[in-house]
Each structure stands twice: as C-alpha cells, then as structure tokens.
Amino acid sequence: MGILKIVYNPDYIKTRTFIDLKENQFLDLLPLNNLQSLPFLKTGNTPLYRISKLNGAGLKHTLLLKDDSQNPTFSFKDRASAVVSAFAKENGIGTIVAASTGNAGSSLAGMCAAQGQKAVIFVPAAAPKAKLTQILMYGATLVPVDGNYDMAFDLSIEATRRFGWYNRNTAYNPLTIEGKKTVSFELYIQLNQHLPDRIFVPVGDGVIISGVYKGFEDLLNHGIIDRMPVIVAVQAEGSSNIVDNLGKSVFRANASHTIADSISVDIPRNFRMAADYLMKYKGETVKVSDKEILQASASLAGNTGIFSEPAAAAAFAGYQSFARNNQLPAGSSNVVLLTGSGLKDLNAVQPMLEIPAAVKPGMASVEAFLKGKI
Questions:
Q1: CATH 3.40.50.1100 given to domain 78-172
Q2: CA-to-CA distance for 196 and 46, rounded, in angstroms?
Q3: What would the CATH number be for the domain defined by 11-71+176-352?
Q4: pTM score, two decimals?
Q5: Could you tell me the sign of the dihedral formed by the alpha carbons of 28, 33, 36, 40, in that order?
Q6: How many CB atoms neighbour CB 339 within 10 A?
Q7: Which uninterrupted H or E stretch holds 24?
Q8: What confidence tens digit (pLDDT) does each residue in 182-192 have?
Q9: Domain-wise residue ranges, the chain
Q10: pLDDT of residue 15
C-alpha cells in the first residue's frame, strides 16, 4: 500500500532559483519539461487568510486558513490534476482515467476539458450530486459504480490495463503527490519564507498529507529550510484507518462511515508513505466526529465567510480540538488546509438548516417574521 516517490538531484536544485510565487515557478521541482504544458486555468496561488477572532473572541495564537476552494474546480485536487494533465500532454496521451468520490474526478474532468483531453471517471453511485454534475458538465465519461470508492478504484485500474489509458488515481500515479506538494511551496512564500508551527490536514487515503510532507521535504533536502513544520493528520472518527494503524506491524482496516465523503476510505491506498512521513517527522494526529465536522463547517462559515465541504471542515475541527485542549501555544502559527468548497456537498449540511417559510407581501408580515431574529 503505497506509491513511488520522485526524487530530484539536490546538487542541481541548489544551483537553481525555482520558487517565484508570482510566476508560479516550480518547474525545477516538478516532473515537467515546460510550465506551458499546464492547463491555462489558474491553479494554485490560493489565498492564505489570517483570522484574528472567532466567535467574537481574540486569538492568542495565529490562525491561517489556506483556501484551496479557490482553485478552478473548487478543490485542492486541481493541483494534482493539472500536473497529471500536463504530463499527459507532453507525452502525447489523450485519455486519462480516475476513480474518485467526486473531487478528483471533477478536477480531472475540468483540466482535461481545458486541455482538449478525454477523461473517464469511475465514482461510487452515492457520490454527491454536485460533484457528479461537475464531471458531466465538463464533458467527461462518468462511470457510476454500485459500490464504494475502493470498488471504483479497482475497476479503474482494470480499465487502465484493458484499454491502455493513463491513470490519475491518487496513491497510484506519483505525479499526484508532485502536484499536491506545491501547496507547501506556496505556504513558505506566503509566510515570507518562514514556516508555520502546525498545519492541519484532512486525511483519507493519505495522498494530500504525503504531498504536503513531500513539498517541505524537498525544501529541506535542498537546504532551503532547516526544519519540518508539525503536520497534524485529521481523520473522521468513522474513517480513521491511517491514524488507527500507525506503528502497527499488521494493518487492520475498518469499514468507513462518515459524512465527509472525500476522506471516507476503507483501505487508504497511500498508507505506507503517509505513515512513514508521520513517524519520521513526528507528526501529530487527531480524530473528529461527524458532529464536530458539521459544527466546524458552520463555525467556519459564520466566522469567516468561507463555506467548506465536510472533508475540509474536518481539518478545522481538528484545529478546534487542539485549541480546546490548550495544545496551541500562545504566539504559535497554525495553518488549516481547506481543501474544497461547501457547494460540493450541500446535502451534508441540510440537517443543520431550516429554510423559513415564505412571508406574505407587506411590511406587517416582514416585521412579524423578523421579530426576535435581529
């Protein structure tokens, strides 16, 4: 259970000036020949917001929100899809296949649409409708699977072998790690070439957190930084197979049950790499309940105006857990990685909401409706 790691020549890299946020110059640490091969859609360089108050109270530590819902298809997965699509373009590959719970699929479909490539997306039939809608609107071939993500993953691999397609799957194609690691380069630049103390990352199959680690590891190996920030792996209580198996000699998987579909994984395909990174660099872990995830989503939206899907809100729930338990020292710098827009999965938050009945035209009705509300 793992993925190949791309290693770059440190002697060569030390002679290069490869990080330029304004120009997105990461070429020396990307497996591409030309940045012009990337889709024209603006991917990466997403906002990093500093939040000074939550619920009206000032914070003694620094809270920074990295909002990757600002990517073209509204998720972090665009970073990986852009690099995969660019590699395919440079190598004359016309059809790319992926398995997805929704975000990776809609991301690949969007990037392929921009590049004139064909995308075939295998998804669990129960994936959120908004994500399936995106995939279809981008013109991709959608293959709904009567089963879970793991079944869709296995079918996509079989199809890859049968039809000779290029497979984008996370924890299968090493270029997905290379695309996702660009968030680490951006954070380093956006923090004026400083490192945060902690980064809270939502974890499902282990690829996003491996990408975050890989980016900082590249900077560390090439002498650009001198330490690794503490990465906090945040998993849903109902899908915590990476956290639960850390350090164990025998991997035992439990069926996943969580509202956060993007991190709902029975068998984390990149377990080995994610676990190795967490243990090597002394990462931290936290599990959060679905109730905490939904509460975090509401708190995030109400306090900051950022509406995140449950998987992204899980990272914020992890941050809130640390804050409640006094695990964030005063003056510390803490980044929460928000990986997808709440518009991706409106059904998840419906139980928290009650849309009011319509008022009759007339100010008397309006005044009666507003009484006690404002």
A1: yes
A2: 17
A3: 3.40.50.1100
A4: 0.93
A5: negative
A6: 31
A7: none
A8: 999 999 989 99
A9: 11-71+176-352, 78-172
A10: 64
